[in-house]
């Protein structure tokens, strides 16, 4: 039959589990050693204690730092996505201006003139500037895409390392719990 523990008995176990053995606690409470060990195992928070039963702040801080790095990388990727979106709209705008200038050139070229009209020269200059700008924006867009791909790969690697670390912590905490059981705590 399963023992119903009082709050005082539970508190006694919590207060003395590092000071007394499971045998001593069982003798003091007048219960079986197995019941005390089972109760200690149920009272122990899972995956949150180190070998001495105290929360390991260094490990918790390392996990928090890893999550912050991942969060920062995700923000950087979002910023790069916004830059790419802006570059795409600028390239689209430059393409539209190029098309407009081409149409204007076709309309304004006098067939009988041997020398270019001043309006045509201005339009040609603008067209050359937009072509240079369009090329520069395409290069910037390609570089931004490469950076985002690199950030995504790095972010994935960090997440995988964090998952392995969490699994390792779970195994270590499980082993720590078993060590307490073996010691008779």
Short note summarizing the structure:
This protein has 185 residues and is mainly α.
Q: What do you see in this structure?
A:
The chain has 185 residues and is mainly α. The protein folds into two domains: 7-43; 57-173. It has five helices and no strands. α2 crosses α3 (33-43) and α4 runs antiparallel to α5 (118-183). The chain starts with 6 loop residues before the first helix and ends with a helix. InterPro entries: WH-like_DNA-bd_sf (IPR036388). Residues 141-168 form a coiled coil.
The number of domains: 2
Low-confidence stretches: 46-50
**Number of H/I helices:** 5
Average residue pLDDT: 77
State the order of secondary-structure elements, H for helix, E for strand. HHHHH
Distance between the termini: 22 Å
**Total strand segments:** 0
The fraction of residues in strands falls at under 5%
Largest sheet descriptor? none
**Fraction in helix:** over 70%
In terms of structural class, how would the helical and strand content be classed?
mainly alpha
Radius of gyration: 35 Å
Form type: rod-shaped
List keywords for this structure.
single chain; 185 residues; mainly alpha; 2 domains; 79% helix; 0% strand; rod-shaped; plasmid
Q: Mind sketching the topology for me?
A:
Layout: H1 7-16, H2 22-29, H3 33-43, H4 57-108, H5 118-183
Helix pairs in contact: 2-3, 4-5
């Amino acid at each position: 039959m399963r023992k119903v523990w009082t709050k005082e008995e539970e508190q006694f176990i919590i207060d003395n589990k590092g000071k007394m053995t499971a045998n001593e606690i069982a003798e003091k409470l007048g219960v079986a050693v197995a019941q005390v060990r089972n109760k200690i195992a149920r009272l122990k928070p899972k995956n949150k204690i180190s070998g001495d039963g105290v929360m390991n702040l260094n490990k918790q801080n390392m996990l928090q730092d890893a999550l912050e790095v991942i969060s920062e990388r995700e923000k950087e990727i979002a910023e790069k996505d916004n830059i790419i979106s802006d570059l795409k709209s600028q390239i689209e705008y430059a393409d539209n201006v190029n098309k407009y200038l081409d149409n204007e050139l076709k309309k304004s070229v006098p067939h009988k003139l041997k020398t270019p009209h001043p309006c045509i020269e201005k339009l040609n200059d603008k067209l050359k500037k937009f072509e240079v700008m369009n090329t520069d924006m395409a290069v910037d867009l390609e570089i931004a895409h490469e950076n985002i791909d690199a950030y995504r790969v790095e972010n994935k690697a960090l997440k995988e390392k964090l998952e392995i670390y969490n699994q390792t912590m779970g195994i270590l905490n499980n082993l720590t719990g078993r060590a307490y059981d073996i010691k008779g705590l």
